[in-house]
1-phosphofructokinase (Geodermatophilus ruber), 344 residues
Amino acid sequence: MSTQAAPPSGRVVTLTANPSLDRTLTLPGPLERGGVVRLAPSATEPGGKGVNVARAIAAAGGDVVTVLPAADDDPIVAALHRLGLPLATVPVTTPVRTNYTLAEPDGTTTKLNEPGAALDPDTRTALAAVLHRYAQGARWVVLSGSLPPGTPVDWYADLVRALRDTGARIAVDTSEAPLLALLTAGPDAVPDLLKPNAEELAQLAGVPEAELVADRDAALAAVGTLHERGVAEVLLTLGAEGALLSSAEGVWSAAPPPIAVRSTVGAGDCSLAGHLLAHLAGAPPAERLRFAVAYGAASASLPGSAVPTPAQVDGPAVRVTAGLSGSTTPPSTAPVPAAGRDVR
């Protein structure tokens, strides 16, 4: 476990335009279609990618605000209040969607996601205004997850442009049409940090996903195309293969420690949270990658969409390599996030 701790410094603001209640259904064995399944105890937690990032940061004692559309009496609002998570909501009349995860004993997870409620232009304008207000003076703003039905695919690009005058760094984690629109919207819409996974990067680069996972040189070449479009820092998560961090300062790759996978839901979100926490604590790039991978691994070892506390994160167990084939970087003495309350 981490031997040195320091609290993260600075506020993070997350936007979850398409939040969810994440219902995890724990199966006693492999799913058999057409059969009757008697579930093990199940759980429901507030979710959506930005909410997951915020929960992990709050669990480390970080200053975080999560922005989302939800009625005051929506169950997700009550759940977030119970966790003590600061939030700013824009009221909508439609209940927040429920996403279902079928979790098998070997760690296989099957996601069944509802589409979410459409947001009218007035609601999107109100969300953008609330986000901008809280972004003033923040260190990071995170735009994360899918967009609600009917939302223009270039909305994230519009938000990045609108947030530039706040001085906050901007991280984006999305996929499919919104990701493509973001990267074709021009240099003024490019985020400071992009967190694709292998599938998303393969779509952007037009190469098979398996090739990116198996060949780090191919992955680095694909990441290079993102830098050519103006992205300063790329955190590429590769699941069980670890992750790669690329910036103007260099390239690092990291392998996770061996774990017993219980659920991969939210692991990528926790990886992003680990990177941000390490950055807020003043850690250099190699350490940011170390804690991104450590947080993702810790998340995958927990049930459902639970987020880890720093006490559950084993940073020194992550092997970080400078470049793609250079020497291994040992854990440094840079400060890492201090343990905070457990929000699971």
Remarks:
- The longest helix spans residues 285-300.
- Confidence is low (pLDDT under 50) at residues 1-5, 325-344.
- The domain at 11-18+46-95+120-329 is CATH 3.40.1190.20 (UDP-N-acetylmuramoyl-L-alanine:D-glutamate ligase).
- The first strand starts at residue 11 and ends at 15.
